[in-house]
Amino acid sequence: MNKKLAAVLSGGAVLVLALSGCGDDGNEEAEKWAGQYCDSLRKQNARIAGANQKLDRITEGDSSPEEVKKTDTEAFGELSAAFEALSDGVRKAGVPPVDKGAELRKDAMAKLDAVSDEYADLKERAEKLDTEDQGKFADGLQDITDEMEKLPAQVNAAKDALSAFGEEDALRDAISAQEGCRKQAESPAASPAASAA
Predict the structure, then answer these.
(1) Is 15 in contact with 158 (CB distance < 8 Å)?
(2) Which of 17, 25, 32, 99 is least surrounded, with the fewest CB atoms within 10 Å of its CB?
(3) Whole-Å CA distances, 150 to 14, 57, 147, 190
(4) Using alpha carbons only, what angle is made at residue 27 by residues 26 and 31, rounded to the nearest 5 degrees?
(5) Could you tell me the sign of the dihedral formed by the alpha carbons of 45, 51, 53, 59, in that order?
(6) What CA–CA distance (Å, rounded) separates 167 from 83?
(7) Higher model confidence: residue 61 or residue 181?
(8) Phi/psi of residue 8, each to 5°?
(9) Residue of 92, 154, 91 lying closest to 117 (CA atoms)
(10) Looking at the whole model, is its pTM more than 0.85?
(11) 3-state class of 54 per DSSP?
């Protein structure tokens, strides 16, 4: 197609955490919590990166409306499920063993759920794209692009909520010792993108 419509968001959706700690005493309860939490983070980061790579690839070529619709629908669905799973991972890990642990957990779950809901809405919009009418298709894709403008703030809010766990002294060392929570090399596909039109 002749015209490319792409909105690359600032701030990646991959929720890697840069943590460092140098405490002396291990905390078994904190380590157990961090192990469950960081394992979920590692798995879902990989899932998020994969979905974002699909979105990136569809913006690079001259894809048909049918290909764009299929890719967007699948990727947005994956992203919604990944953020929902992250929220579920925080829930299953339980209340972190720190003061205000319940509050931190609740805040993180709420913000992750908000991102999941936004991607679910984008998936619904993508499913409704009219691939038979180029004008309607372009308008529908523009609506998706406009809606995606909400995502950087929501993703960053979720990142901040997750980072708050690592700011707690009782959790810092336990989290930084977990592979799933160590900062990874930034993926070139870390930022979601709307597809080409």
Answers:
(1) yes
(2) 25
(3) 16, 22, 6, 16
(4) 100
(5) negative
(6) 21
(7) 181
(8) -95, 125
(9) 154
(10) no
(11) helix
